[in-house]
Write a structure and sequence with these properties.
single chain; five-stranded antiparallel β-sheet
Length: 315
């Protein structure tokens, strides 16, 4: 299926290992990927997961220092007369130390506890600095979101078969100088060698001064197009994939915005066309029906022969 921003985009991490003089790429899954790139992980997870991660780290850090304090509970002064501090008291003492609270009741009174307090104070500064930096990085990121259509079609436009897919600005904040690039990636064999070739797909319109609602992206499939003459079977055999990249500038935050999407051979609809989204609600009122954003309809039988692999369209 097409990889989209709305929960469908897959993030892949690979590790290169050398075996017998050959580099092998291995995809990292699960916790191994997160350990290798914790900064990206903390920026990518949703806010509830981010806050839970920070809370869990804070709790584990205090528990670790609680165990160190438990080695010398008598080294923590301030206990009521005739009463010995418990491990729970040591935990709350760690919380006060890590946060630089210092109520003045419990205090270090032995060399061991003073050493642990010194180390914990340093960890407290680092913990606050890291969490503050992560929170600021998340807040400062652009919140623009794009939605790509689930499928792409090859439908007639101005008498030519045209690769077509849709892009919508979900938040409807203006994206200045939006640019879209598309490429076709597919396997090729040359002189007995198999390679993955990526060729650009020139678009009818590849930039928009101000992108606010929807963009219908089109590539004319003429004689010069890499898609010309390829039917579905050939696209699947060569593992063809249409790669799409968007970049623009958020008008409010003045921050760059980047999105990407891809369409495999199974996402390409030949002999179908996107359903019209424009609806007239009145003599001077035009409505875009986004419930039809991903919907397609069969083409007229006379137009199906215009699609690649069925005819010889002119440039």
């Amino acid at each position: 299926m097409a990889q989209q921003v709305e929960g469908r985009q897959r993030i892949r991490s690979v590790r290169l290992r050398q075996r017998g003089g050959v580099l092998h790429a291995e995809e990292l899954q699960g916790w191994r990927r997160h350990w290798r790139e914790p900064y990206r992980f903390m920026l990518a997870i949703p806010w509830p997961g981010f806050l839970l991660s920070i809370a869990a780290s804070y709790l584990l850090l205090n528990l670790a220092f609680t165990l160190l304090y438990a080695l010398d509970l008598d080294g923590i002064g301030g206990a009521p007369a005739g009463q010995r501090l418990s491990v729970l008291d040591a935990f709350f003492f760690s919380v006060q130390t890590l946060g630089s609270i210092g109520y003045g009741v419990l205090h270090p009174s032995s060399l061991w506890v003073n050493l642990v307090v010194t180390v914990e104070a340093l960890f407290g500064l680092l913990f606050i600095a890291v969490t503050t930096g992560l929170a600021f990085a998340r807040f400062s990121r652009s919140r623009a979101r794009l939605r790509f259509s689930r499928v792409a079609t090859i439908e007639p436009w101005q008498g030519h078969p045209t690769l077509t897919f849709r892009v919508a600005n979900v938040r409807q904040n203006s994206l200045v100088d939006g640019r879209i690039r598309a490429s076709l990636a597919m396997n090729e064999e040359s002189d007995g060698r198999r390679m993955r070739r990526i060729v650009p797909l020139p678009l009818v319109r590849d930039q928009s001064i101000s992108f606010q609602l929807m963009w219908t992206v089109m590539h004319r499939v003429g004689h010069q197009s890499p898609l010309f003459g390829l039917d579905r079977e050939e696209l699947e055999r060569r593992q063809a994939e249409i790669l799409v990249a968007f970049q623009g500038l958020d008008e409010i935050l003045l921050a760059p915005v980047h999105f990407r999407c891809s369409y495999g051979a199974a996402d390409l609809r030949l002999g179908e066309q996107f359903r019209d989204m424009v609806r007239m609600d009145g003599p001077n009122s035009v409505c875009l029906d986004f419930s039809c954003f991903d919907e397609t309809d069969p083409q007229h039988p006379a137009l199906v022969a215009e699609t690649p692999g069925h005819g010889e369209p002119a440039d």
